[in-house]
C-alpha cells in the first residue's frame, strides 16, 4: 500500500505541465537521436548535460532518462529500415528486422518492435517499483568498507564485459581513475596533477569529459558519412498487425527476452547491448529451426527488442539504489544527479523519495509517449534518418562548444573537450573502449574516499575488508573477475 501511495504522489508530480513537457521532449529527442545512425543516447545526454544545470532536478533527470530509453526505442528504426543500427543495442534488430523490411513488411517489423519495447519496458518499471525499495533498505547497512568493495566489483565487472581486449578495458579504467585524481585532495586539500592550471583545482568537468569522449570523438571519428537511399522508400501504415501465427510465436521470445534483459540490466557492467545479443542467441538455441533466424522471422526481432528495453529500465536499479552505474550512459545520468546535489545510493530512497517516485511515474508516461510516437509517425522517422551527415557534423560540433562554454562562460572547458576528444579518437583507433574510462572517472573519487575512511577507522589495517561478510564476498568476486579469464586463456594456450 505504501508503494501505491508513493507512486500516486509521483504521478501527481509528473503530471504537471512542466514535467510533462520535459518528459515528452526527452523521449522525442531520444527517439530522434537513436534513429540517426552513429549518434545514440550517449551523445544526446552529453550534449544536454549543460542545459540541465539550469533546470530543476526533477525536470532535468526526467528529460535525461527519457533520452536514454527513448534512444533504445529509436535505434531499431534505422536498423529495420536501412540496415544501419542507430544504437549498439539495436544491432541485433538488423538481422531479422531488416530482412522483414526487404520482404515488404517494414510496417509489421516496426509495429512489433514498438509494441515489444513498450511491454518489456513496462515490465522493467514494475520490477523497479518492487525491488528498488528492498535493495535500498538492504544497502542502508552498508558502511565505507562495503561501499568500496561493491564499487570495486562494479568497476571491474564493467571493464571485463566490454567489447574487445580486456587488457585495453582495464587500461581505460586506469586512465579514468587517473583523471579522477586531478584536483584538490578531498582529505588534505593538496593539489594533485593540476599542471599549474587553476581551473583544474576543482577537477576535470564531468560534462567536458563526457562531451569530449562521447560527443566530439564520436562525431569526428564516425564512419557513417552518408545514409542509404533505402531510407527514402515509403513505409505503408496499413497491414501493420502481425499474423496470428506470428503472435503465437512471439509470446515465448517476448517473455524470455524480457526476463533475461531485466536480470542483465540490473547487473552493473552489462546493459541493453549485451542483453539483446544474449536474448537472440538464446532464442536461436531454443528454436526447433535455427536456420530461419536471419531470414526475417519475428522471433529474431521480438526477443532482442524486449531484452534491450527491459534492461534499459532495470539499469536504473543499481544506479539509484547503490550509486553504481550499470552502463556508461547510466554513469552520465549518475553524474547529472550528483551535479544537481543529489547523491544516488541507499539513502536516496529515504532522503529523496519524492524524486525517486516521480522518476518512476515519468517512466510510465514516457513509455506511453513512445508508443504514440513510434506507431503513427513511422513515415516521419523514415525521412529523418535520411538527413545527410554533412549537415549533422557542424551542427553537433557547434552545440558541443556552445553548451560547454555556457556552463562557466569560460573557454577553458572547450580546450578540455578538444584534448579529450583527440584522446578519444586515438582510443578508438587503438580499440580502447571509452565507457570504462568514464566509469572509472566517476567511481574513482568515491572509491578513494571510502578507502581512506575505511583505513582510518581500522587504523591502517587492510584486513578490515575481509571482516565484513558483504565486503569479503565482493573482494572474492573482484579477484575472480580478474583471475578466472587469465586462467581460461592460459589453459587455452596449453591446449
TrEMBL record:
Keywords: Membrane, Transmembrane, Transmembrane helix. The chain crosses the membrane at residues 12-33, 108-132, 138-157, 169-188, 200-221, 258-280, 322-343, 355-381, 387-407, 414-443, 463-487. Residues 20-438 form the DUF112 domain. It holds the Pfam family TctA. It comes from the Bacteria. This is DUF112 domain-containing protein. It comes from Sulfitobacter alexandrii.
